[in-house]
Amino acid sequence: MFREKSEICSSTPYIIVKSMNKTLLLKALALLLLFSSTDKINLTSTVKAYTIVVPDNYPTIQEAITHAVDGDTVFVKSGTYLVDENTTIVVNKTLSLIGEDPAATVILGATNESYENGIAIRLAAPNSTVSGFTITNFVVAIAVANYYDEPYPSGCKIINNNIVNNSEGIRPQRNNLLISENNITKNNVGISGYNTQNIIITRNRIIGNGYGVNIGACRNVTVTENQIANNTYGLNLVYYGPYLISGNSITGNSCGIRFAEACNNATVYGNSITQNTVGAALLIFPNAGDLVVSGVGNIVFGNLFIDNTKQVAQEKSPYNYPSTTRMGTDIVVWDNGTLGNNWDDYSGIDADNDGIGDTPYIIDGDNKDYYPLITQNINRPPTTSTPPSTASPSLSTEPTPEQATVTALIAVAIAAITFAVSGLVYFKKRQKGKKL
Question: Residue 32: pLDDT above 70?
Answer without folding.
Answer: no
